[in-house]
């Protein structure tokens, strides 16, 4: 039996719930963000299995930063990889994403340095610090890739200048085809 009718409509790629790449998140940054989520989760879980601490303030700070990084980055990935970001009411997603990622990278770096300098030397603590530094590297990589591909989001346009290393020519000021 041959098929008489063929489909007449093409599927709408924007109708899917999950959409990567999108305007706010390309595939490379999506992969970096997933690695940030996973590494900060592992750092948090490893910190949680520490049974005793000599100076607990560095442990608690590391716990706060790793848990915050895990939860908020997971939320950010979920929002940016679905259509839900359009329903939140935030219009400056690139700026929010950049600032959040840069601040989290700095906080994670500080927390890792403090926890590495002030811990009991147990295997759990040292492994948590190692995963913390890996997560920190992913956050800084994300910031660097963002700057490389999109430029600083606070500049006009946000895209990096492409001037082949030279000085960019000034824009033309004379209008063409102006009626007199």
Automatic annotation (TrEMBL):
Keywords associated with the record: Membrane, Transmembrane, Transmembrane helix
Residue stretches in coiled coil: none
Positions of transmembrane segments: 58-78, 98-117, 129-147
Record-annotated MARVEL domain positions: 24-151
Main location: membrane
Entry keyword annotation includes RNA-binding: no
The keyword Signal appears for this protein: no
Cellular localisation: Membrane
GO cellular component, one term: membrane
One protein family per Pfam: MARVEL
Family annotation (InterPro entries): Marvel, MARVEL-CKLF_proteins
Residue ranges, annotated region (Disordered): 160-180
Membrane topology listed for this record: Multi-pass membrane protein
Protein name per the record: MARVEL domain-containing protein
Organism listed in the record: Champsocephalus gunnari (Mackerel icefish)
